Amino acid sequence: MPVSAPPRKSERPESDGLSDRSGTNATPPLAFAAVILANVALAFGPLLVRMADTGPVASAFWRITLAAPVLALVALISPARPRMPGKGQTGLWALLLIGGIAFAGDLGTWHIGIRQTTMANATLFGNSATFIFPLYGFLVARAWPSRSQGIALILAAVGAGLLMGRSYQVDPRHLVGDLLCVLAGILYALYFILMSRVRTSMPPVPALAWSTMASIVPLFVFATLLGERVWPDHWSALILLALGSQIIGQGLMIYALGLLSPLVVGLALLVQPMVATAIGWVVYGETLALPDLAGVAMVAVALVLVRRGSAVAKPNDTDERQGRRIRI
Q: Which of 3, 81, 109, 253 might form a disulfide with 184, Cβ 3.0–4.6 angstroms?
């Protein structure tokens, strides 16, 4: 019975383009730093949404609209300039369009939820992609998580449960805001999945610029249908929201999506509720109890575990016959 030979040392093993972005041994330090800084910047988003004197969805509209010209300009002057759809690019532009609409839905529901729950929970459940995106990565790679990856996911899940339980105990009304933020997180995961596909063939800045522009009209329509106040009296919070959350936060995130595995990106999202918990404590006096601190500690341990490097997942029989090894 013929057996396929393993790849030569000079050849790079095949990859699915999603699960093997981090190289063969460890997470790229620059990309890991980018995803951490992205989440720190994004953690200030709920504070700025609360400070804005527009409706919650309208603030999302301005976050996107104010950032779009800057991103478009940066994309135009960069070496990889964005191009209009051409022959054979229908699939790519469909991904960008659907990704932009999914992101608009994410921001709209999340911003409404932000005003109905705590800072920590708004960021935690708004980033439900923490668990959905890594699951997608494992399914694409057709591999089970390694022991350390499994432990990291369990710690992250328990930490999330502690924070959500605390929210319900403090005020049951927060549960509505929590659920809205969970819905936002599901849409955020869809956005990540679509943009990770886009990043296989498009640089980060043009990809972010096009998806940002695709979000403008849906958010404006959403805000108008809800009867929200759209035009602000004060612009400072909205400008900071566009700069910190969309240009810096999402810019670094889209860059990292092209280089890191779904597991690393997903667990790094938990940096946001950690920072937001501290912001809520300092600015709004949202008290921290032992379960909150335990949840933060579990998230920190999970990040340390995932940063140590990606273990080789056991390939299935088909992959062994093909002489391939898959990494997450």
A: 109
Using DSSP bridges, classify how beta strands 312-313 and 326-327 pair: parallel, antiparallel or unpaired: antiparallel
Cα→Cα distances 209→67, 73, 82, Å? 9, 9, 8
Q: Strand, helix or coil at 22?
A: coil
Contact 276, 113 (CB under 8 A): no
**131-174 per-position pLDDT tens digit:** 778 878 777 767 677 777 788 888 877 877 776 666 665 667 77
Surface-to-core class of residue 52, CB atoms within 10 Å of its CB (0-12 exposed, 13-18 middle, 19+ buried)? buried
Q: How many CA atoms lie within 13 A of 114 on its CB side?
A: 28
Number of neighbouring beta carbons within 10 Å of residue 255: 21
The listed range with the strongest mean pLDDT (137-141, 146-150, 244-248, 311-315) is: 244-248
Q: Which of 54, 61, 34 is nearest to 213 (CA)?
A: 61
**CA–CA–CA angle 281, 284, 285 (5° rounding):** 50
Distance (Å, whole) CA 260 – CA 196: 10
Which SS3 state, helix, strand or coil, does residue 46 take?
helix
**Cα distance between residue 109 and residue 186, in whole Å:** 11
Going by C-alpha positions, the residue among 257, 261, 249 that lies closest to residue 202 is: 257
